[in-house]
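Memo to structure team: turn this sequence into structure tokens by end of day. - J.P.
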Amino acid sequence: MMEAMTLREKLGLAIKRMQDRHHKGVDARLMPMGVSLVQWHALREIKRNPGSPQLRLAELTFNSAQAFGTLTTRMLQAGLITRESGVGRAYCLSLTEKGETLLEQGRGEALAVLTESFSKLSEEECEVMLRLLEKALTADIASASS
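Reply from structure team:
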């Protein structure tokens, strides 16, 4: 028989379940617009980080360099982004008008999902949760011991 989950295991699972809920909810709302959550997230990071190399954008979108390259090819073909030569062999990506429109429309859908998801929490509780998660993210897990 497996031991009961520890508090930290329960917390980790709750965070993962919340993330899964958000991803599925946002993806479902974006699909009728013809864009996936992965594409929308890439649009958001390209807009937030102008001139960034593709490798950095891959990191920001939690993708491998290869997966982000494939994603960019699909987004170029869909007319969501443009690619310009950058420094050396790097390329700079930017949004097209179509990409900008989908980014803004998608933001409304993402905010709707997040608003619904956190509707049981007060503004103060959301602020506390944010501060606690940001604090937890400062931990260096690579050197943490059990």
